[in-house]
Automatic annotation (TrEMBL):
Localization, UniProt: Cell membrane
Chain coiled-coil ranges: 66-100
Name under which the protein is recorded: Uncharacterized protein
Record membrane topology: Single-pass membrane protein
Major place of residence: membrane
Oligomer and partners: F-type ATPases have 2 components, F(1) - the catalytic core - and F(0) - the membrane proton channel. F(1) has five subunits: alpha(3), beta(3), gamma(1), delta(1), epsilon(1). F(0) has three main subunits: a(1), b(2) and c(10-14). The alpha and beta chains form an alternating ring which encloses part of the gamma chain. F(1) is attached to F(0) by a central stalk formed by the gamma and epsilon chains, while a peripheral stalk is formed by the delta and b chains.
Keywords: ATP synthesis, Cell membrane, CF(0), Coiled coil, Hydrogen ion transport, Ion transport, Membrane, Transmembrane, Transmembrane helix, Transport
Physiological role: F(1)F(0) ATP synthase produces ATP from ADP in the presence of a proton or sodium gradient. F-type ATPases consist of two structural domains, F(1) containing the extramembraneous catalytic core and F(0) containing the membrane proton channel, linked together by a central stalk and a peripheral stalk. During catalysis, ATP synthesis in the catalytic domain of F(1) is coupled via a rotary mechanism of the central stalk subunits to proton translocation.
Amino acid sequence: MSATNGVLAEGIYHITFDWPVFFSQLFAFGVIVYFLMWAFRKWMTPLMKKSQDVIAQQLEESKLASSRLAEAKQAYDNALAEAQRELERMRQDAQEDAVLIVAQMREVAAAEVARVRRQGRDQIVLFRKQVIRDLQAGLTATVLAQTEAKVRDQADSPQVRADSIERFLEDLETVANTPSIVRRRTQSQWN
């Protein structure tokens, strides 16, 4: 292999090295690579830049959404804590109201019990008075009936009539024979 004639391999392949062709092909390869780089920069770089901008924007939106999510979570936690405090306050108010209502109901019930007792006592007193009046009226009627029956029995007997007339006549005699003071006393006995 001699470097002067440019043959690299002899035989069936017979490869030779031609410097002008090599440089022309190298130049053509450089032009093609340059064109591809230029085309890549011209058409692909804006697309990549656009994609990178979209990705950067999405990252920014993601960070913003993440911060909004954190704020929303904080607001939710605050609202939940406030709701818990409000619920506890409402529960406490309801319990205080229930205690107050129970106390008022007890007072009303005690007043009602006192009123019913007082009314019951008044009715018992009225009923007692009515029973006493009825018993007195019945007793009086019975006593009068019994007395009337006894007086009739006694007055119907001839001996009692005679005694009664005798006594009356004696009283008249006494009145006629006594001074005026005794007469007044005797007359008052007849009345």
